[in-house]
Design brief:
Blueprint: E1 5-12, H1 22-44, H2 49-61, E2 82-88, E3 93-100, H3 106-116, E4 121-123, H4 124-133, H5 147-156, E5 182-187, E6 193-199, E7 220-222, E8 228-233, H6 235-241, H7 243-254, H8 258-272, E9 277-282, E10 288-292, E11 296-303, E12 308-313
Parallel strand pairs: 3-4
Antiparallel strand pairs: 1-5, 1-11, 2-3, 2-6, 5-6, 7-8, 8-9, 9-10, 11-12
Helix pairs in contact: 1-2, 2-3, 7-8
Length: about 325
């Protein structure tokens, strides 16, 4: 019988164990579980992997703990600019958006790009115009406001510094509003795989910076013949490493197992390039991998073998 598998991540690089409170850890793990359950419930009913990864991403975008959708960080200009991508491993169709504002769920917009435009990648105002045309829900700036995110930005805005959201800083200001790019991969009852990733990017980013999240092959990739991958970490390095596609290529051309391919990219290639982060992956047999070279990665997996777990640290 075909194994169904749902895997999610909420960012790599974490609050250190010394700074993590039991209450905060519980909140993160509950958020990851909600996303797993949202996606898995679709797979369990025979639904498509691409719908499952979208549902899991929506759950994480709606959770202010994570740096995507509602929890997105502030740019240099003091606004949120969000990126997202989704890819269907059965058809190799993909949709991505970059630099969008006021979109409640950027992953829904990426799905619309994939299904209802003649394009793969839309950005900025054009993506926003398409969102309006497709009836994608928008929210006012206040919806995306969080005191912690705002304070984080105020500390950085007068400098040229920027930070990965999951860089640790003063825990007293945390107020349960922290951490990373989010993503999901899934394998459905028909052996189809899909990947989806969403992010608010870097605090104090400027010049319309775009990371690896919406770059097909960089931060997001899916192919039934190999695997589905969603990445999190220092986006510039992941783009240069073509990290998500590299995992697929190692499986396809070198015949590596899913785990070995993920280890090669994350623990060797990215480390040599000084790229911190990790990724989650699944193949059409329902096998999964969750690999990272940072202190931790917010992650979880649920499958038809009875595995159901969420973790932060190694």
């Amino acid at each position: 019988m075909q194994k169904i598998t749902m895997v999610v991540h909420g960012g790599a690089g974490t609050i250190t164990k010394e700074e993590m409170t039991p209450e905060l850890e519980k909140s993160f793990l509950e958020g990851l579980q909600q996303a797993l359950d949202a996606g898995y419930s679709i797979l369990e009913k025979g639904g498509a992997a691409v719908e499952a990864v979208k549902a899991a991403n929506i759950a994480l975008e709606d959770n202010p703990l994570f740096n995507a959708g509602r929890g997105s960080v502030y740019t240099k200009q003091g606004v949120q600019e969000m990126d997202a991508a989704i890819m269907n491993g059965k058809t190799l169709e993909a949709g991505a958006v970059a630099g969008v504002r006021n979109i409640r769920n950027p992953i829904k917009l990426a799905m619309e790009v994939m299904q209802n435009s003649d394009h793969v990648f839309l950005s900025g105002k054009g993506a926003s115009d398409f969102a309006i045309k497709q009836g994608i829900k928008q929210e006012p700036d206040e919806y995306f406001f969080s005191q912690y995110r705002y304070d984080q930005w105020k500390e950085a805005r007068d400098s040229d510094n920027y930070s990965l959201d999951h860089s640790s800083n003063d825990i007293s200001k945390l107020n349960k509003k922290k951490i990373g790019t989010i993503g999901a991969v899934a394998c459905d009852v028909n052996g189809n795989v899909a990947a989806a990733t969403s992010t608010g990017g870097m605090t104090n980013k400027k010049y319309g910076r775009v990371g690896d999240t919406p770059v097909i092959g960089g931060g997001t990739y899916a192919n039934n013949h190999t695997c589905a991958v969603s990445c999190t970490g220092h986006g510039e390095v992941f783009i240069r490493a073509v990290a998500a596609y590299d995992v697929s290529a190692l499986v396809e051309y070198k015949g590596l197992s899913l785990t070995d391919a993920c280890n090669e990219v994350v623990l060797n290639k990215l480390v040599q390039m000084q790229g911190e982060g990790g990724l989650i992956a699944v193949n059409s047999n329902g096998e999964f991998a969750m690999v990272f070279n940072s202190e931790g990665m917010y992650r979880g997996v649920k499958n038809s073998d009875g595995i159901n777990e969420t973790n932060i640290y190694k």
